[in-house]
Amino acid sequence: MAGNNYIKFFIKKGRESAGRTRDIFVMNPTAPPTRTIEANSHIHVFDYAANHFTETENVKTEDCYSYIDNGHVTWINIGGIIKEDVEKICSHFSIHYLIVEDILSINQRPKMDDLDTVLFCLLNMLYFNETTGAVETEQISILLGKDYVISFQEDSNRDVFDSLREKLRLSTSKLRQSGADYLCYALLDMIVDHYYIVMEKLGERIELLEEEIIRFSNTNSISDINSLRKEMIVLKRNVAPVRELVNGFIRSDSDLLEERNTKYFKDVYDHIIQANDLSENYRDMMINLQDLYLSNVNLKMNEVMKVMAIVTCLLAPATVIGGIFGMNFDRIPTLHNEYGFFLAVTFMIIIPLWMLFTFRKRGWF
Q1: DSSP 260
Q2: Measured between alpha carbons, how far is 14 from 96 in angstroms, rounded to an integer?
Q3: What would the pLDDT profile of 246-302 be if each residue is shown by its tens digit?
Q4: What is the mean pLDDT of the chain?
Q5: What pLDDT does 314 receive?
């Protein structure tokens, strides 16, 4: 029964690993999105200027229409993707239908589109699941228009924008004194900065795995290495394209971006380059860990073979002596001597001891 339990454990672990592989690699952005059906979307609106601020939660879709061209900067954050709500808002704000398709899609590659009246970018927020050790993603779409920013989130229960909301509530913050393009920069900056938190968690896992392999590597080590390499693939897939995305804002000639704010997007660009380099380093470290594991396995095998070879060499003299005195001949030296047996045993002991001394002196073990 105990053996069957162990078999079930390994089968379950293998299926979980296969499921994670399928989630990572089997992605078709052209397939119809199969999202979890939300009961309703959560809309949170910040409408502000240097001397004006209003914050409204649980806003209805139709109530968002009044914020267009009201002389203030408006941030409409929509948590939970519902097709009807997305189409209504995008239709009212004259958003191209191709962008609507991107917002409703899943598994899209991070990208940036520069249209005449709006700048659109799509990327993933990353979270680290402490329980499963997996990197989780949440697709977010950001629309930058004239004096407004609309963000669409898949999950209405979590994001990384809490500190941004706190800054908006302060009348002296730079966000309150700046335009919509600066708000767009702040959103991108917080998403990119949160990548480092996820990478720190992965770095800690790599360090622990390295110590485990060095101290006591076992058959589970290679499974942990493969599992961690899959999370590195998720990290790399979501971090690398953001470089092109941010570069699109820097090179854009859109009137929606003030020239004085270009330096802030360049700062995000520097951060994403560093994050991309760090993800490359992590990938190299995973390859080195696999090589380290294989080296440890070979080293242990060599140690075992060396011990077996030494034992074989030490037993060889006794085998030879026993074989000689075990031959069926009438005349064998000391065969009938009363001390013959003790003499043979003495040689069987002395010769291996001499061999041990010689091996040790030569540094063979």
Answers
A1: G
A2: 44
A3: 999 999 988 999 999 999 999 999 999 999 999 999 888 888 888 888 888 888 888
A4: 84
A5: 82
CB 129 within 8 A of CB 158: no
> How far is 126 from 194, CA to CA, in rounded Å?
7
- b/e burial code for range 310-333 (CB count within 10 A of at least 16 → b): beeeeeebbeebeeeeeeeeeeee
Rounded Cα gap, residues 322 and 318, in angstroms: 6
Please give the Cα distance from 269 to 259 (Å, whole number): 16
How far is the C-alpha of 191 from the C-alpha of 211, rounded, in Å?
Answer: 31
Strands 111-114 and 73-79: unpaired
Q: Which of 177, 190, 189, 121 is nearest to 149 (CA)?
A: 121
Give the C-alpha separation, 201 to 111, whole Å: 26
> What count of residues does the chain have?
365
Nearest CA-CA partner of 165 in 77, 274, 287, 37 = 77
Cα separations in angstroms, 301 against 309, 328, 356: 12, 41, 21
Token pair 């003790």 in the structure block, residue: 342
Residue 360 banded pLDDT, cuts 50, 70, 90: confident
CA angle 72, 151, 279 (to 5 degrees): 130
Q: 67 and 76 in contact (C-beta within 8 Å)?
A: yes
Residue 73: burial class (beta carbons within 10 Å; 0-12, 13-18, 19+): buried
Q: What value does the CA radius of gyration of the chain take, rounded to a whole number of Å?
A: 34
**65: amino acid identity, one letter:** Y
Angle CA(236)–CA(282)–CA(154) in degrees, nearest 5?
Answer: 35
Domains and CATH numbers, the chain: 2-296 (3.30.460.20), 306-361 (1.20.58)
Name the residue type at position 290: Q
